[in-house]
Each structure stands twice: as C-alpha cells, then as structure tokens.
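hey so u asked for the seq, here:
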Amino acid sequence: MKKAAFQLPPLKVHKGKNLGYVRLDGKFHYLGAADSLDIQEKYRAWVAGYILTGSPPLKSKEQDRGISVSEVCQRFKTAHSKRSTFVRYALAAMTETYGTLPVLELSPKRVKALMAALAADARNGKPRFGRASLNGILGAVRCVLKWAVSEELCPASVWHAAQTVSGFKYGETAREPRRVHAVPESVVKDTLPHLRKGFADAVQVLLYTGARPSEVLNLRKRDIVTGEKVWTATLEGHKNTHRGQERTLYFGSRAQSVLRRLMLCGPDDLLFTTSEGLPISVWNLAGTITDTCRRHGIPHWHAYQLRHLAGTKAREVGGLDGTAAMLGHKDVETSKIYGELDATKAVAIAAQIG
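ran it, structure tokens below
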C-alpha cells in the first residue's frame, strides 16, 4: 500500500472565540484573532517553525518564561538521531540534574556543579569517568547549548557563559586515562596461532595497515582495488566521514597475501567472517583476543594497540608525514600519539655521545 503524503494541519477558525487556530495531535494552538490582517502570516510562520523543528513553535508566554533544560535535551534528541557516547552522557546528566530548570538559568556555576558531580560518580568503588571522558562530556554540554542557540531556544549568552567553564587538568580527577602503547610484535606472533580463522586474518591485516578495527572488519571484496603493486580501498563510511575527510587503506604484499585467500567470494560479501560465515564485529574481535590471551598465558593486549604498532613502524620509515598518511590523520600532531619514538635508538645515541 502506498504511503500517504504528509499533510500540514490547516488553519481553522474557532467561531465562538473568533480565534484562528491549528489543531495538532489533539491539541489546539491559537494564533490570534481570526479577523486580524496578519493571521495568514502568523499561520505561515507557525508552519515554517513546525517544519524546521518537528515540534510546535513556542508560545509567547513560554518564550518569556524560558524553555526547560529537559525540553532542550528532548528536542536535541529529536533533531540528532545519531549521538556520540559523550553526548548521550551529557543529555542524561543535564536532564537528571537540571531537567526542570529553565535553560536561561543554566549558569557557569551550575555547569561546574554538574561536572563535579560526574567526577565524583563511582560504581563498585571506582570512579565512573576518567579525565578525558569528563572533558568530552563537558564539550558535549557546550555542543547542546550551541545547538539550542542556533534554534533560538535560548539566547547566545547561555552558550557563551558555558564556554568559560574550563576542562579538568591533569591531577584534578580521581582517574587518569591510561595511555595506549604499541603491543610488542612478539606478543602478537604468540597470539596468532591460537586465534580462530577470520580473527587471525583480521589481526594480520590490522598489523600491516594500521587501520582501525571497524575499517577492516567492514571491508567487502568490491572495496579492494587490485590494479597496482599496492592495493587500495577507499572507504565510503568511516570515523571522519562527517568532516568531509577521505580515508584510504593501503595493502602491501603481506596484507595482500592474507586478502587473496579471503577474496574467493561475491563482490558484496564481507571479507572477515567467522568459520560459520557470520560477520566479525569489533566487540567479537576484542573478546576473542582477551579470551585467547587468558587461556594461553599471553600478556593481555587489544586490537587498537596494533594501530599504534603500525604507526611506530611507519614513523621509522616515513617520519610523521608518512605516519599521518598511513593512519589517515589530518594533523601530524595526532600521529605523534600513534607513532611512538624508538627508545632503543635513544639508548644507542646516548651510549655514543652521552
């Protein structure tokens, strides 16, 4: 059955009150005197606001009083179906702590109090959030308020005031983020023989390319371009797609030897699957590596450490520019995090000149 086209609610007249109104979901939205010269203009403005926001525009009394924090959060959810983890935490904290408060009254001190409460939050005796996560949530709070300003739900002064709240510095929280280091290649080699088919293939390709697990695990045969000495795959969707950045994976001879065995499939088939033919997710891979290391007495490591190992090797060969190109970083400063310096070289130099 063909889906009916969406129809806007028409302008109607309440004869007893002589008021123009729009009825939506059983509720009456009065726009003023039905015989006024600007009733049609008010109706068109109401319709335009409804199309833009997906909800009825605020009445003048609501505008004077100010929309609540919980209503701002709800409208943000309606407008953004895809939300990051930090945004989800920020929306939940804002609603639970200041839900009934008019957003006009969300002052910097209240934002500080909100962040202090999150910093003190603990589960099973351990801090729930580390410093990096707390600063990410603070950024998400500012993002929500910035959106509210753009939708004219609150004045720009609310967002500008929130910008004055500083993030947490090192040592100001009970939990510091653990820095991720490259996994020793010997540990990876000890793990590979114990991994099941599909998982071992994914680990090898991650090691040779420095790609993110999600980038490799979503590869299909049609994504691989095999015409040159170095194969490539330009990803349609990746972490920075929304920023307009391109992401290309490069496969050398060792990565190609793994991929050749996997490309005996249809063009739209996923390359990395379990022995049962099921897709391998990021969580499947992480759990499998953890279980394998525990069962065989191998030091624990996780898949993202392969990206750091590949970045370190790339830095030795091509410097920071080469690392940025391989890992898909726009800023070489980010590449410094992944391409770690070789301490053995520093030791050798110190032995000679120190």
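The radius of gyration is 28 Å. The longest helix spans residues 304-327.
lmk if thats what u needed
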